Amino acid sequence: MTTPGSAAGWLELGDGLHVRQSRAYWMNSVVLLDSVHTILVDPGVLPSELDEIAAFVRTAEPLAVTLLLTHGHWDHVLGRAWWPNARVIAHDACAAEVRARLDHIRREAETLAAEHGERWPAPFEPFQVDEPVSGQRFLKLDPWRLVLRDAFGHSDSQLSVHLPESRLLLAADMLSDIEIPILNGPPAVYRRTLETLGTLAAGDAFDALVPGHGGIAYGADVVRARITTDLTYLETLEREVAAARAAGLTLEAARARLDAMEYVGKHSDGYSMVDTHRRNVERTWRHDGS
Questions:
Q1: How far apart are CA 46 and CA 5, in angstroms?
Q2: DSSP state at residue 264
Q3: Rounded to an integer, what is the distance from CA 71 to the centroid of its chain?
Q4: Which of 56, 77, 223, 230 is the most buried (most CB within 10 A)?
Q5: Average pLDDT along the chain, 290 residues, taken 10 residues at a time
Q6: Does residue 1 belong to any structural domain of this protein?
Q7: pLDDT value of position 290
């Protein structure tokens, strides 16, 4: 997409697959719509948008609704209150992460809503995960077939969601066209996650992906290019931080040197990744010296 968020609203991918992109952070919520079983992946992120998603789901009159949360970060978990009777599937570390971040989640949610002239009907509350998963998990939720995989590097509770029959990957907060990798630990952890996905993509397991934020990637070449772009960023980050340390630079001097790196979002006015990159440098420096 030429401008992030220019296609904000609904996009149909076929076979009951629908994506609603928010006007906030260009976040993607995915609806697997079916009258027997509808699955909502990371529904959000503003109250009015959740109302709209709920109304859309009601058109199918599904017998069952499941919420699948890719990780426990604030913008991915806000929809729980709209479906209080739905079953929740998430990583087995998700519920603890949500509880630990409760004040942060409430603060960010209130700030976001106010920025868009909205209000939450009630404060966010932590919730139970009905089916905690980890590792690699195959789920049959008729008519849907899903493969969930640990996807560490950005969050310790992150999962990728693969729909083999649709050849589609829901990539959580990875492989965006507007974001660089956002680290919560050493780059090597994130890199291993991407290398696993790269092997699957090379084997034609999927040829489209929906990131947590930004534009959808269509076509095997575009998907593989996104994986390569993010791997290259992480590899360069690791190499340059190690070189700066070997040269005897301080963290401040290393950060200044690595400001010259090129990466997605560096020159963006509307969605700058400059501060994120500097935090990535600090995290890499800390783990490189451990």
A1: 15
A2: T
A3: 8
A4: 77
A5: 55 96 97 98 98 98 98 98 97 98 98 98 97 98 97 98 98 98 97 98 97 98 98 98 97 97 95 97 86
A6: no
A7: 52
d(CA 279, CA 272): 13
**In which domain, by residue range, is 64 found?**
9-288
CATH number at residue 47: 3.60.15.10
pLDDT of residue 8: 74
pTM of the model: 0.95
Residue 3 falls inside a structural domain: no
Q: Residue type at 260?
A: A
Residue reference for tokens 């301080």: 250
Task: State which H helix or E strand residue 217 sits in.
Answer: strand 217-218
How would you class 158 by CB atoms within 10 Å of its CB: exposed for 0-12, middle for 13-18, buried for 19 or more?
Answer: buried
3-state secondary structure of 51: helix
Encoding tokens for residue 94? 């998700």
Which residue matches tokens 């360069």? 236
